[in-house]
């Protein structure tokens, strides 16, 4: 069963599934695999490394991919937008910050703009600006996010967006999540955790194994890893990761972490370089429960869309057509 929505029409894709532009994880190979399998892969522009971005665009080869940026970070390195637009991406996604200063340049380049939101106020701003699609991101998502849950946020954003496609994100990693998102009137989904452990992912082998062993129960939102990485994130957003000895030591003692920051940053950086997930961050969301197998991104996407199609068909058979009673039929 083919699932076709307005999102498929917007990006000329077969499946209404987008790869989240996970910083340091969604490289060119993973984005290309997603696009070649019928979804849309987005390279994670992260915090602004021009050489890395060029390399990952090259790694995607001739695949039709998009790119995503952390908006407040892009504002400090606007030349990265020039670099990305010169590659003629299928879409450009902006998250976490004021996207409006970039709107005209993206429009002039005739590139489709996706804006990710975590609140209804942000959704209204995106819709009023006439963006091409809106991602409604629930707090269940891995990485940075807000406080609203996916299930109530998505339909509320749909009501605001009207004709603009809404993409659900946060806690979606299989066909059940895709089917649920479509039932909420979303036009598709954006998935990160589902593809974190894919063969093409840039995550370390240890991080992939930690994600496969993990559970949503093992995740939490905090700012400790941003502090350890020296990233001055705006207070509206914090980071969902797997718990480990680093979070257990410092999540409840942010002041103490600040007082010991220089020493802890050295420890954190060494662990990250060594792939030591007991200290380094494993950035996945509550959908970690749903990823248990390693394999190519194509297989994950096919399983997701096939399962969603079967669910939608099954649900359709449960709905009986409305029949007027005989008295109403006579009137």
SSE diagram, text form:
Blueprint: H1 6-11, E1 17-19, H2 28-36, E2 42-44, H3 50-59, E3 66-70, H4 71-74, H5 79-86, E4 92-95, H6 100-108, E5 113-117, H7 120-129, E6 133-137, E7 143-145, H8 150-161, E8 166-169, H9 175-183, E9 188-191, H10 193-196, H11 205-213, E10 219-222, H12 224-229, E11 238-242, H13 245-250, H14 254-259, H15 261-274, H16 297-318, H17 326-330
Structure commentary:
The chain has 331 residues and is α/β, with parallel strands linked by helices. Helices cover 45% and strands 14% of the residues. The chain contains 17 helices and eleven strands. The chain has helices at 6-11, 28-36, 50-59, 71-74, 79-86, 100-108, 120-129, 150-161, 175-183, 193-196, 205-213, 224-229, 245-250, 254-259, 261-274, 297-318, 326-330, and strands at 17-19, 42-44, 66-70, 92-95, 113-117, 133-137, 143-145, 166-169, 188-191, 219-222, 238-242. Strands 1-9-8-6-5-4-3-2 form an eight-stranded parallel sheet. Strand 4 (92-95), helix 6 (100-108) and strand 5 (113-117) form a beta-alpha-beta unit. The radius of gyration is 20 Å and the shape is globular.
């Amino acid at each position: 069963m083919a699932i076709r929505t307005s999102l498929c029409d917007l990006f000329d894709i077969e499946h209404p599934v987008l790869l989240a532009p996970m910083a340091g994880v969604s490289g060119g190979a993973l984005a290309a695999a997603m696009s070649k399998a019928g979804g849309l892969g987005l390279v994670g522009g992260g915090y602004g490394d021009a050489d890395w971005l060029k390399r990952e665009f090259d790694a995607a080869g001739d695949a039709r991919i998009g790119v995503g940026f952390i908006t407040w970070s892009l504002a400090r390195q606007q030349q990265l937008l020039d670099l990305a637009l010169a590659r003629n991406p299928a879409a450009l996604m902006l998250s976490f910050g004021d996207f409006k200063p970039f709107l005209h340049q993206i429009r002039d380049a005739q590139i489709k703009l996706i804006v990710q939101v975590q609140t209804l106020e942000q959704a209204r701003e995106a819709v009023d600006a006439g963006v091409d699609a809106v991602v409604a991101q629930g707090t269940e998502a891995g990485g940075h996010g807000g406080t609203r849950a996916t299930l109530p946020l998505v339909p509320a954003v749909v009501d605001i967006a009207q004709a603009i496609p809404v993409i659900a994100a946060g806690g979606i990693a299989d066909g059940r999540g895709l089917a649920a998102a479509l039932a909420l009137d979303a036009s598709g989904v954006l998935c990160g955790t589902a593809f974190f452990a894919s063969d093409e992912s840039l995550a370390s082998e240890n991080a992939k194994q930690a994600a496969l062993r993990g559970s949503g129960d093992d995740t939490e939102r905090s700012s400790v890893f941003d502090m350890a990485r020296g990233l001055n994130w705006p207070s509206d957003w914090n980071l969902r990761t797997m718990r480990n000895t680093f979070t257990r030591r410092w999540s409840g003692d942010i002041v103490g972490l600040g007082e010991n920051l220089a020493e802890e940053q050295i420890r954190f950086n060494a662990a990250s370089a060594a792939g030591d997930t007991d200290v380094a961050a494993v950035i996945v969301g509550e959908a970690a429960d749903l990823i248990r197998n390693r394999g190519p991104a194509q297989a994950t996407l096919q399983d997701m869309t096939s399962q969603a199609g079967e669910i939608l068909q099954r649900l359709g058979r449960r709905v009986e057509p409305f029949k007027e009673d005989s008295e109403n039929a006579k009137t």
